[in-house]
Structure formats: C-alpha cells, structure tokens
Amino acid sequence: MRWSSILAALPLLAAACDRPAPADEAARLSPRAEKGKALFSTHCAACHAPSAKLVGPPLSEIASLHGANPEAIVRWAVSPGRKRTDVPPMPSFRGVRESDLADVAQYMIEAGNAAGKQRP
Ligand code: HEC
Predict the structure, then answer these.
(1) Residue nearest atom 33 in ligand 1 by C-alpha distance
(2) Which pLDDT score is estimated for 118?
(3) Domain ranges of the chain
(4) Ligand 1 pocket by C-beta < 6 Å: which residues?
(5) Which residues of the chain have pLDDT under 50?
(6) pLDDT tens digit sequence for 14-44
(7) In angstroms, what CA-CA distances link 53 with 45, 46, 50, 56, 61?
(8) Domain 30-118 has what CATH class?
(9) Rg of the Cα trace of the chain?
C-alpha cells in the first residue's frame, strides 16, 4: 500500500467536499434574477414564497404557469387577474417600473424552478 499517494490525494478530496451540493447549484441565480430578488423582497415576498403558499401562490407554481413567458408575470403584476377565489385579490404594482418587474419575473422563474426541483 502506498500511503504517500493516499496522503497526496487528501487535499483533492477535501476540495471535492467543498463543492456546493446540487440543490445549491440549482438555486444559483443569473445576474438579472439577483437584481430582481431585491425588488421581490420589497414588493412581493410578503405574499409569495419559493415553495409555500402564503397569501399568493408559491414561486414553484408561478414558474410552472409562466416559466416560458416572463412577460405574463409583468402583465399580471401591473394588472392582476382573478383566479383563486379562496384568497383576496392581488394589488396592482403599476407604480413599479416594468423593467424592474421584468427582473422580478426572472427571479420568480429561476427561484420557482429551483424550489420545484427540490421537492421529493
Ligand atoms: C398583498 C399580497 C400580494 C403581494 C404583495 C403580491 N402578490 Fe402576487 N398574488 C397574490 C394573490 C392573492 C394571488 C392570487 C390571486 C388570484 O389568483 O386571484 C397572486 C398571484 C400572483 C401570480 C399568479 C398569476 C397567475 O397567472 O396565476 C403572479 C405571477 C404574481 N402574483 C406576481 C406577483 C409579483 C411579481 C409581485 C410583486 C411585484 C406580487 N405578486 C406581489 C398576492 C400578492
């Protein structure tokens, strides 16, 4: 047994263990979504969470509804529809710039997809 080669491999093993878990990798956000995350915290987080239903639907649900069409999220935020009758209507965010809402939409989709993947 060549102990010296095993010892030589230890730092490599330690480095391998430092790598983030796959779930963290899935939650890594694009720069655009990072920007949207801050605005999301200010404007939307009171009612929307990644995988839990608060007042509004979770981001995982929003991502599966609108993942291919972030523009639909922007339109909804400006002029919310009425779908779920067991909750109060969502207030309009027409006072927020649409380019900011587009960043929020990007965050909702990326965080929602990551939250959806973490479910068993
Ligand atoms: C005061 C609570 C509240 C806040 C704040 C809020 N929402 Fe909502 N949201 C709701 C509720 C309630 C619903 C469900 C309404 C319904 O289905 O009738 C909803 C639904 C949604 C949906 C689902 C649309 C669909 O097609 O089903 C999207 C997308 C959404 N919100 C985006 C946002 C964004 C973006 C923000 C922040 C800019 C935000 N919401 C802030 C309460 C809120």
Answers:
(1) 77
(2) 79
(3) 30-118
(4) 43-44, 46-48, 55-57, 62, 65, 73, 76-77, 82-84, 87-91, 93, 104
(5) 19-25
(6) 555 554 444 444 569 999 999 999 999 999 9
(7) 11, 11, 8, 6, 9
(8) mainly alpha
(9) 20
Looking at residue 12, its pLDDT comes to 54
Across 26-51, b (16+ Cβ under 10 Å) vs e yields ebeeeeebebbbebbeebbeeebbbe
Tokens representing 89?
A: 């209507």
Distance in Å, CA 57 to ligand 1 centroid: 7
User: Following DSSP, what letter does each residue of the chain receive, concatenated?
Assistant: --HHHHHHHHHHHHHHHHSPPHHHHHTPPPHHHHHHHHHHHHHTTTT--SSS-SSSPPHHHHHHHHTT-HHHHHHHHHS-----TTSPPPPP-TTS-HHHHHHHHHHHHHHHHHHHHH--
